[in-house]
Task: inverse folding
C-alpha cells in the first residue's frame, strides 16, 4: 500500500524550477508570500541548456523599438505589440536583475543572432549562457526560505466546485470571455482521443476556485506517491513539450505536463501548433531523451546534407545550398524524410577530417560518439528537431490565465511575445520578465501578509482530477482514497504503460513536423486516438505519456484547423498566409475539444 504524503500548504505553489519558475518564486517571496516550488528536477529543464543567450537592447545605437520591430517580424502577425513592447523595454532591467543576483553575463560585447537587426544577445562563455543564468537563480533560490520539493511531479490542479465567478462556470466553450469566434469541435477520428482529457467518468470539470495542486513524489523506480498541496494560487512554469516529437533538442522532462494540466482544468490553450524546429538535431531511433543539436557551424565548415542514397540534399533547391535559412533547410529535409522510411537524412562531415572535428567541434564529435557514431568516418543521421513551443497556456505577461488563481509563465505560456515564430533568444528574456511580473501580480492579488491557506483536509469535499488506479483521469473526492487506489501495481500493467509513446512521437514528427497537410494530420489524429491506455500504476512515465498524448492532440488539432502557412507552421496543402491573422484557441468542453479562432 502506498500511503499519500502528508499534505503541505503555501500561498503560492510554483511548478517548475527553470528561469520562469525561480523568477516567480523569488519575486513573490520577496513580497512576503509563502512560496513552495515543486519540480521534477531542480537542476533540469531547458534553461540550463540555453546556449545563445538573452535578447536585450543594450548596445550602442540599439533601442527597445528596434527589438520590438524584429520580434514582430519573426512573429508573423501573431504577436501582441503591447506585450512585446513591455518585454523589450523591461529586458535591460531583467539583465540588471540577473547580474545583481550574481550571474556573470557579457553585457557589452553583445552577439548578433538571426532575425536581430542589432548586436543584442547577452551571453556567457561560448555556449553556457543558460547554465550561468540558472546557476545564479538557483543559488538565490537555495539561499532563500522558499520551500523546495524536488523529484516531485505536478499531476493536476485541485479545484473547488464553489466560489467561481459565473463566467467561468459556463460550459458553452465558445466564448467564456475569450473573444472566440467560428467555433468548431474536433470530432470523428479525434473523438476517442478527446475522452482522456475530458475525464474517464464523464464528469465535466468546470473551472472553479483553485485550491491547490495534486503532486506525486517520484520514487527510485519511477512510481509516484501522491499528495496534496493546498495553495491560494498555482503557477505553471513547467516548460515546453519537445518530447512530443521523435526528434527534439529539449530535455527528457519536456513532456508538456503544465500545458496538459491546465488543459484538463479547462484553461484556454493558444496557438499550440506553432512549434519551432531546429534543422539538424542528431536523430536517435527512440524518443527517450534529448537529442544533441548539431551546430550549423559544421555545415559552415563544409559538412554536406545528403539524401539516404548519398546525393546532396540541397542541390538544386536553393542557391544558398546547405547554408540556406533554417526553415528552408528544415522544410527540404522534412520533404525527403517524409518520402522515405528512415526518419532521417545524413549529414556528411567526413570531409572535414579528424583534426578539425576533434579540435574544432569537440562537443558535436563527443555527442555523436556517445551514440556510437564517429563523424570522422561515418555520416551523422539528422532530422529537424522540435526546439521551442511558441504557443501554450493563454496568459498575460503577469501570468494570469483564464482560470482564477491559475498563473502560467515561461515556455508553457502563450503571452503574445513569441507569436507564430520565436525570435532567437527572446525566450529566456521572457521567462525572467514574465516571472518577475507574475511574482509581483501574485503579491498584489493575494496581499502581502501571509494568510492561512486552505488546509489539505479541506479538499476532501471538493472534486479534482487525478490519476486513478488504471492510469485514467478520474474525478475523485478524497485524496486519501486516491492514494490508496494508486497502490495496485502489477508488472504486466507497468510494461503496458509506455507502449505507444515512441510510435506516437514518430507520428508527430512525420505528420506534425516541419511540413504538414490535412491528410497527414487526420492520420495523426487517428494515431493519437489509438494511442493505448496508459499504465496501470501511478508512475512517472505513464503520467508523462498521457500528458504527451494530450499536447499531441492539441498540436494536431490546431495544425489541422490552421489551413494556412504562417511563421513556423507550414502546410504543403495551404502554402499562402491568410491576410487576416487569428489565434487558435483550444479548450475542453466536457468530452470534446473545442477549437476556435480569435481574430486579432
Ligand atoms: C538546447 C536548447 C537551447 C536553447 N537556447 C536558447 C537560447 O540561447 N536563448 C533562449 O532565449 N532560449 C533558448 N532555448 C529555449 C529556452 O531555454 C527555454 O524556452 C526556457 O529556458 C524555458 O524556461 P522555463 O522556465 O519556462 O522552462 P524550463 O527551463 O524548461 O523549466 C521547466 C521546469 O519545470 C519542471 N517540470 C516540468 N514538468 C513538471 C511537472 N509536471 N511537475 C513539476 N515540475 C515540472 C522541470 O523539471 C523544470 O524545472 C533553448 C532551448 C534548448 C532546448
Result:
Amino acid at each position: 500500500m502506498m500511503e499519500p504524503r502528508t499534505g503541505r500548504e503555501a500561498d503560492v505553489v510554483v511548478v517548475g524550477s527553470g528561469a520562469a519558475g525561480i523568477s516567480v518564486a523569488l519575486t513573490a517571496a520577496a513580497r512576503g508570500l509563502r512560496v513552495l516550488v515543486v519540480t521534477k528536477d531542480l537542476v533540469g529543464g531547458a534553461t540550463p541548456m540555453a546556449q545563445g543567450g538573452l535578447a536585450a537592447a543594450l548596445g550602442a545605437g540599439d533601442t527597445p523599438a528596434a527589438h520590438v520591430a524584429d520580434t514582430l517580424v519573426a512573429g508573423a502577425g501573431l504577436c501582441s505589440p503591447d506585450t512585446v513592447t513591455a518585454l523589450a523595454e523591461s529586458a535591460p532591467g531583467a539583465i540588471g536583475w540577473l547580474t545583481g543576483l550574481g550571474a556573470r553575463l557579457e553585457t557589452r560585447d553583445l552577439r548578433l543572432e538571426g532575425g536581430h537587426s542589432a548586436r543584442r544577445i547577452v551571453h556567457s562563455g561560448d555556449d553556457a549562457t543558460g547554465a550561468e543564468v540558472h546557476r545564479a537563480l538557483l543559488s538565490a533560490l537555495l539561499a532563500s526560505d522558499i520551500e523546495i520539493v524536488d523529484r516531485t511531479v505536478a499531476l493536476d490542479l485541485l479545484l473547488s466546485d464553489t466560489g467561481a465567478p459565473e463566467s467561468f462556470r459556463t460550459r458553452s466553450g465558445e466564448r467564456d470571455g475569450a473573444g472566440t469566434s467560428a467555433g468548431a469541435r474536433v470530432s470523428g477520428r479525434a473523438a476517442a482521443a478527446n475522452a482522456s482529457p475530458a475525464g474517464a467518468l464523464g464528469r465535466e470539470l468546470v473551472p472553479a476556485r483553485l485550491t491547490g495542486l495534486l503532486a506525486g513524489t517520484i520514487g527510485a523506480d519511477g512510481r509516484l506517491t501522491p499528495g496534496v498541496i493546498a495553495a491560494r494560487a498555482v503557477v505553471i512554469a513547467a516548460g515546453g513539450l519537445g518530447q512530443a516529437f521523435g526528434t527534439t533538442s529539449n530535455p527528457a522532462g519536456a513532456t508538456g505536463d503544465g500545458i496538459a494540466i491546465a488543459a484538463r482544468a479547462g484553461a484556454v490553450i493558444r496557438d499550440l501548433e506553432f512549434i519551432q524546429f531546429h534543422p539538424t538535431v542528431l536523430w536517435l531511433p527512440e524518443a527517450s531523451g534529448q537529442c544533441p543539436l548539431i551546430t550549423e557551424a559544421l555545415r559552415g565548415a563544409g559538412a554536406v546534407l545528403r539524401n539516404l542514397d548519398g546525393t546532396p540534399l540541397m542541390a538544386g533547391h536553393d542557391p544558398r545550398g546547405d547554408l540556406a535559412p533554417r526553415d528552408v533547410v528544415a522544410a527540404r529535409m522534412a520533404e525527403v524524410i517524409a518520402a522515405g522510411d528512415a526518419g532521417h537524412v545524413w549529414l556528411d562531415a567526413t570531409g572535414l577530417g579528424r583534426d578539425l572535428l576533434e579540435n574544432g567541434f569537440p562537443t558535436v564529435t563527443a555527442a555523436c560518439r556517445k551514440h556510437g557514431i564517429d563523424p570522422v568516418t561515418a555520416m551523422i543521421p539528422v532530422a529537424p528537431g522540435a526546439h521551442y513551443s511558441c504557443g501554450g497556456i493563454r496568459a498575460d505577461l503577469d501570468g494570469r490565465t483564464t482560470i482564477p488563481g491559475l498563473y502560467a509563465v515561461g515556455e508553457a505560456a502563450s503571452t503574445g511575445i513569441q507569436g507564430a515564430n520565436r525570435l532567437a533568444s527572446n525566450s529566456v528574456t521572457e521567462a525572467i520578465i514574465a516571472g518577475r511580473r507574475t511574482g509581483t501580480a501574485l503579491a498584489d492579488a493575494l496581499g502581502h501578509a501571509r494568510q492561512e491557506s486552505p488546509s489539505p483536509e479541506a479538499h476532501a469535499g471538493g472534486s479534482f482530477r487525478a490519476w486513478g488506479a488504471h492510469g485514467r483521469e478520474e474525478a475523485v473526492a478524497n485524496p486519501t482514497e486516491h492514494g490508496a487506489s494508486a497502490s495496485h501495481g502489477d508488472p504486466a500493467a507497468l510494461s503496458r504503460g509506455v507502449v505507444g509513446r515512441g510510435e506516437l512521437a514518430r507520428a508527430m514528427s512525420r505528420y506534425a513536423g516541419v511540413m504538414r497537410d490535412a491528410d497527414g494530420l487526420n492520420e495523426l489524429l487517428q494515431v493519437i486516438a489509438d494511442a493505448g491506455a496508459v499504465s496501470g500504476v501511478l508512475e512517472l512515465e505513464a503520467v508523462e505519456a498521457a500528458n504527451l498524448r494530450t499536447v499531441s492532440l492539441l498540436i494536431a488539432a490546431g495544425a489541422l484547423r490552421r489551413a494556412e502557412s504562417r511563421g513556423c507552421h507550414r502546410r504543403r496543402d495551404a502554402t499562402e498566409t491568410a491576410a487576416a491573422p487569428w489565434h487558435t484557441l483550444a479548450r475542453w468542453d466536457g468530452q470534446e475539444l473545442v477549437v476556435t479562432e480569435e481574430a486579432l
Summary: DSSP finds 16 helices and 24 strands in the chain. Residues 335 and 550 are 26 Å apart (CA to CA).
